[in-house]
Amino acid sequence: PQPPPLLELRDVRAAYGRITVLHGVNLSVSAGQVVALLGPNGAGKTTSLNVASGTHPALSGQLMLGGRDLTGANPRDLARAGVCLIPEGRGVFPNLSVRDNLLMMTFTGHSRDEIETIAFERFPILAQRANQPAGSMSGGEQQMLALARGLATDPAVLLLDELSMGLAPLVVARLYEQVAEIASHGVGVLVVEQFAAAVLGIADHAAVLVRGRVQREGAPDELRAELSALYLGSST
Ligand code: ATP
Predict the structure, then answer these.
(1) Nearest C-alpha to atom 3 of ligand 1 is from which residue?
(2) pLDDT digit string (tens) for 203-216?
(3) How high is the pLDDT of residue 188?
(4) What Gene Ontology terms describe what this protein does at the molecular function level (predicted)?
(5) Which end is more exposed in the chain, N or C (fewer Cβ atoms within 10 Å of the end residue's Cβ)?
(6) Which helix (H) or strand (E) holds 25?
(7) DSSP assigned state of 5
(8) Which atom of ligand 1 is nearest to the CA of 192?
(9) Ligand 1 pocket test, candidate residues 22, 47, 165, 231, most atoms within 8 A of CB
(10) CA–CA distances in Å: residue 29 to residues 55, 119, 140, 197
(11) Cβ < 6 Å from ligand 1: which residues?
(12) pLDDT value, residue 235
């Protein structure tokens, strides 16, 4: 029998106050898989990630992790269960050095050396930047630091929000190569992007969220052609 998916949202509804923004979302991410969650502004992509990481409650539906029902679990418990959210805007501490941004991850139980090894083997540029304030690095380098911090938690599932935000296409392509590499070691990755082109190149599956509903899903190649018609204009 197939193992259960690492992460599953089942018929999730979510709201802010009286305004419902997710109307029964189903998503599933398996080990080693990159799933792209695409859709226009305000579709509910970030909210879906927030439900998956326990930072926003679902009104109804279920959050399953490796077949376990963790609906209603708090962010800490979900982090312990292996869910790692890398928020839009990257969540690094701009005034701290790159090294200090990494070393605060010793709460994970990894030693300083282990954390630096995890980070610097995958992103050698971070070693060169170790003593520099994180906020003085390029956007792409900051995103690498955010990924390295996430990897230090030994995630089972990585949730990436708009990794490409504000970055040049070539930088985005390189980051996504690393994301694909991370997935190839068995991590399940759910990537939210508004503009699709780069992530479709590495995704195994893609879903398009429109006004809180998965309007379409399938193989990235199948969706690529339709996406512009669905909502993206000519930008893909
Ligand atoms: P974007 O690409 O613009 O971030 P998104 O697809 O990630 O869009 P969400 O951020 O999940 O969409 O937002 C879904 C809807 O919920 C939007 O209409 C948004 O205005 C609303 N919303 C998001 N956060 C809040 C909040 N804290 N309070 C009230 N409404 C919110």
Answers:
(1) 41
(2) 999 999 999 999 99
(3) 97
(4) ATP binding; ATP hydrolysis activity; branched-chain amino acid transmembrane transporter activity
(5) N
(6) strand 19-29
(7) P
(8) 7
(9) 47
(10) 19, 24, 25, 20
(11) 16, 21, 39, 41-47, 194
(12) 44
What is the distance, to the nearest Å, from the Cα of residue 212 to the centroid of all Cα atoms in its chain?
18
Q: With 50 as the cut, is the pLDDT of residue 135 above it?
A: yes
Token pair 């292996």 in the structure block, residue: 82
Which residue, judged by its Cα, is nearest atom 29 of ligand 1? 16
Residue identified by tokens 């995958």 is 122
User: Cα(135) to centroid of ligand 1, in Å?
Assistant: 26
Per residue in 66-109, pLDDT (tens digit) is 999 999 999 999 999 999 999 887 779 999 999 999 999 988 88
CA distance 50 to 88: 11
Strand order in the sheet with 205-210: 83-86, 157-161, 188-193, 34-38, 205-210, 213-218
Name the H helices within 75-196: 75-80, 98-103, 112-122, 124-128, 139-151, 169-184
Q: What ipTM, to 2 d.p.? A: 0.94
- Tokens at residue 172, please? 């985005």
Residue nearest to atom 21 of ligand 1 (CA): 42
- CA 6 to ligand 1 centroid distance, Å: 25
Query: Looking at ligand 1, which atom is closest to the CA of residue 212?
Result: 14
d(CA 213, CA 13): 10
What distance in Å separates the CA atoms of residue 112 and residue 125, rounded to the nearest whole number?
A: 18
208 neighbors 214 (Cβ within 8 angstroms):
yes
What residue type is assigned to position 236 of the chain? T
| Residue 164 pLDDT exceeds 80 | yes
Beta bridge partners of 133: 97
